[in-house]
Automatic annotation (TrEMBL):
Pfam family, one: Voltage_CLC
UniProt GO cellular component terms: chloride channel complex; plant-type vacuole membrane
Name of the protein this chain belongs to: Chloride channel protein
Keyword field contains Cell inner membrane: no
Positions of transmembrane segments: 86-112, 132-158, 283-302, 335-355, 375-396, 460-490, 511-537, 543-560
Keyword Zinc: no
Length: 782
């Protein structure tokens, strides 16, 4: 997770005046129990987080509409044709997101199925000729090379491409900017790395990477391409803002899930339930449209591949575990094993989260030693996986084929439900059927229905134990990886095992037990319910599973929530990303926002017409991204005639830098006319978040000039009274997607500033508040 141990110190030396500090590690403490980044002891607006392999400063995103004079003028001047054009291009981009995600998912599936297929065919050929050692070296060598390609790309070119990318997407849609997560290099490495890692037989899936790939495509389309080669079309620049890019990335995330599982409705619900923080009906329609396009592309590919034009690729890569041919029969007594599966899923899912948490901390210590250690760790896991997948089937006994089965038995091809492996003719190796195949085929085989005697309990037990180990040690290495398929493999293992033992007492098929086991473990680990239920229904193509699937998911999530957070929340916490939860802590109702701003530094504000020197000094000496703009000596239009201080609004750092770059200075202190502003700025330019104060050169003469901030100030900022509880402020902040919240006094006395503080994301996070108000820890425990 971290490039080396000096990155943290280098990052903090960038700005000596920052409030936050990263504490040094205590050599006496256990590093496995420490956070990856020590929390600061003051409220701060510039957190550090691990993004890819680097410690980076994290900023919030401007999802709020900035209603300054330029925006209002632009909105009033838009014709009906321009509004319709804007809406048309929104739908066009949603279509392109779905189309490109579907095409890339198809290419990944084609590559994985053909690479892994030809590899397995060669291994089977060696085994048939009893050249077991040659087959082992060939199998291990190919997997080693494929893992090396995936790992070297992630380590050297795009560290942010490693892992699933879903936690970072959750953080982005929550309002946290994650640097370098959606670039062209990340996209390319994610695609190639996913092909290599999945083809190598590692215990990971392409589902998480496909979500990240869809989000990268959406982000690149929204900004007109990579940073260095952007298309500067006028209509495309309307989407180069945080608000529209958030909607596009939501479409990309739902398209990725749809491409992974061929589940369009499940993809939309996944975006709604798991990754998106802000939602509206128009976004629901566009995400559904994107997923519909993905399904059409995938369906067209399947039809093409059925004609034999895709090599070894068939339905295998486009996951579809069809159990529609099974008549689902259950009675009241069958609720007992269903409840057992749900409880087991919750317990094992929370245990998996706990153990993976410790493994990721251990991996962080290894990764801190440098790139070579990251690479060696990935290759070591690949070697261990290959040895187990090839060697363990030799421990299983050969099982005679059932002549009553309609399927071919035994099989020696790439896929099949009865692998012969080292067995004589007429016999098959059930453990080889599960291990010496692709992960997709392994799930399809263990989900197989109407095969009550296909697998021996010992083989299922070995399979479950192996994938529990692989599921812990594989996630976290420097390759693109997803958690969906490893959890499905683990859950289907204990589900099938329970089905074998419960066979005399239930009417439910063993394959359906495997499906329920996979669903329960996913709910116990990821804590999803509605989206997961729909995804499994679309996967299995059997609506009769709906009642018992719902029961299993609800029980597993309830049990899991009583132990620890979901796996994605744990990863967010590990990386230090300031994710704002939906539910505030109960003790937050005992604290007011006025008490929070009292422990913060004084607010830095500007006058409506401000001196250039004051603006430059504020930008260079602080890291604030928003500054209140106030006018003194204003006579209110209503009420008493006494002069008062008017809160004109709030101005963003990015807009101030634009002013300095364009040299929009006045020699005398005065307010500007509307035409002067429109001549220099456009609303589209102000929507972009580019520029750095260090890149701006201002002469001594210019320092004495003035700037009229009124036209660029957001005149409708969200304000709250100082008496509001932190819990209520947090809910408001999250639901509206704010970056700044102004705190105003309850009583406005003469000479008192109309703004007593500004709250940001960092100020409303529970762990930051508890460091400043430690007495609240006791009430938290209660």
């Amino acid at each position: 997770m971290s490039e080396d141990s000096n990155l943290l110190k280098e990052s903090t030396s960038m700005n000596e005046t920052m409030v936050e500090e990263v504490e040094e590690r205590d050599p006496e403490s256990n590093p496995l129990n420490e956070p990856l980044l020590k929390r600061n002891r003051t409220l701060s607006s510039n957190p550090l987080a691990l993004v890819g392999a680097k410690v980076s400063y994290i900023e919030s995103l401007d999802y709020e509409i900035n209603e300054n004079d330029l925006f209002k003028q632009d909105w009033r001047s838009r014709s009906r044709a321009q509004v319709l054009q804007y809406i048309f291009w929104k739908w066009t981009l949603a279509f392109l997101v779905g189309l490109l995600t579907g095409v890339i998912a198809t290419l990944i599936n084609l590559a994985v199925e053909n690479i892994a297929g030809y590899k397995l065919l060669a291994v089977v050929s060696f085994i048939q000729n009893e050249r077991y050692l040659t087959g082992f070296f060939y199998f291990t060598g190919i997997n080693f090379i494929l893992t090396f390609v995936a790992a070297i790309l992630c380590v050297c070119f795009a560290p942010t491409a490693a892992g699933p990318g879903i936690p970072e997407i959750k953080a982005y849609l929550n309002g946290v900017d994650t640097p370098n997560m959606y670039g062209a290099t990340t996209l390319i490495v994610k695609i190639i790395g996913s092909i290599g890692a999945v083809s190598a037989g590692l215990d990971l899936g392409k589902e998480g990477p496909l979500v990240h790939i869809g989000s990268c495509i959406a982000s690149l389309l929204g900004q007109g391409g990579p940073d260095n080669y952007r298309i500067k079309w006028r209509w495309l620049r309307y989407f180069n803002n945080d608000r529209d890019r958030r909607d596009l990335i939501t479409c990309g995330a739902s398209s990725g899930v749809c491409a992974a599982f061929r589940a369009p409705v499940g993809g939309v619900l996944f975006a709604l339930e798991e990754v998106a923080t802000w939602w509206r009906s128009a976004l629901l329609w566009r995400t559904f449209f994107s997923t519909a396009v993905v399904v059409v592309v995938l369906r067209a590919t399947i039809e093409l591949c059925h004609k034999g034009k895709c090599g070894l690729f068939g339905e295998g890569g486009l996951i579809m575990f069809d159990v529609s041919d099974v008549t689902v029969r259950y009675n009241v007594m069958d609720i007992i094993p269903v409840v057992i599966i749900g409880v087991l899923g919750g317990v094992l899912g929370s245990l998996y989260n706990y153990l993976l948490h410790k493994v990721l901390r251990l991996y962080n210590l290894i990764n801190q030693k440098g790139k070579m250690y990251k690479l060696l760790l990935s290759l070591s896991v690949a070697l261990f996986t290959s040895i187990c997948q090839y060697g363990l089937p030799f421990l299983a006994k050969c099982t005679p084929c059932d002549p009553s089965l309609s399927e071919v038995c035994p099989t020696n091809g790439r896929s099949g439900n009865f692998k012969q492996f080292n067995c004589p003719n007429g016999y098959y190796n059930d453990l080889a059927t599960l291990l010496l195949t692709t992960n997709d085929d392994a799930v399809r085989n263990i989900f197989s229905t109407n095969t009550p005697f296909e697998y021996q309990p010992s083989s299922i037990l070995i399979f479950f134990a192996l994938y529990c180990i692989l599921g812990l040690i594989t996630f976290g290495i420097a390759v693109p990886s997803g958690l969906f398929l490893p959890i499905i493999l683990m859950g289907s293992g204990y589900g099938r095992l329970l089905g074998i033992f419960m066979r005399p007492h239930t009417n439910i098929d063993q394959g359906l037990f495997a499906v329920l086991g996979a669903a329960s473990l996913m709910a116990g680990s990821m804590r999803m319910t509605v989206s997961l239920c729909v995804i499994f229904l679309e996967l299995t193509n059997n609506l009769l599973l709906l009642p018992i699937t719902m029961i299993v998911l609800l029980i597993a999530k309830t049990v899991g929530d009583s132990f620890n957070p979901s796996i994605y929340e744990i990863i967010l916490h590990l990386k230090g990303l300031p994710f704002m939860d939906a539910n505030p802590e109960p003790w937050m109702r005992d604290l007011t926002v006025g008490e929070l701003v009292d422990v913060k530094p004084a607010v830095i504000s500007f006058r409506g017409v401000e001196k250039v020197a004051n603006i430059v000094n504020a930008l260079k000496n602080t890291t604030h991204n928003g500054f209140p703009v106030m006018d003194c000596g204003v006579v209110p239009t209503t009420g008493v005639a006494n002069e008062a201080t008017e809160l004109h609004g709030i101005i963003l750092r990015a807009h101030l830098i634009q002013v300095l770059k364009k040299k929009w200075f006045l020699k005398e202190k005065r307010r500007t006319e509307d035409w002067e502003v429109r001549e220099k700025f456009t609303w589209v330019e102000l929507a972009e978040r580019e520029g750095n104060i260090e890149d701006v050169a201002v002469t001594k003469e210019e320092m004495e000039m003035f700037v009229d901030l009124h036209p660029l100030t957001n005149t409708t900022p969200f304000t709250v009274l100082e008496s509001m509880s932190v819990a209520k402020a947090m809910v408001l902040f999250r639901q509206l997607g704010l970056r700044h919240m102004l705190v105003v006094p309850k009583y406005q006395a003469s000479g008192v500033s109309p703004v007593i503080g500004i709250l940001t994301r960092q100020d409303l996070l529970a762990y930051n508040i508890l460091t400043v108000f430690p007495h609240l820890v006791k009430s938290k425990r209660k």
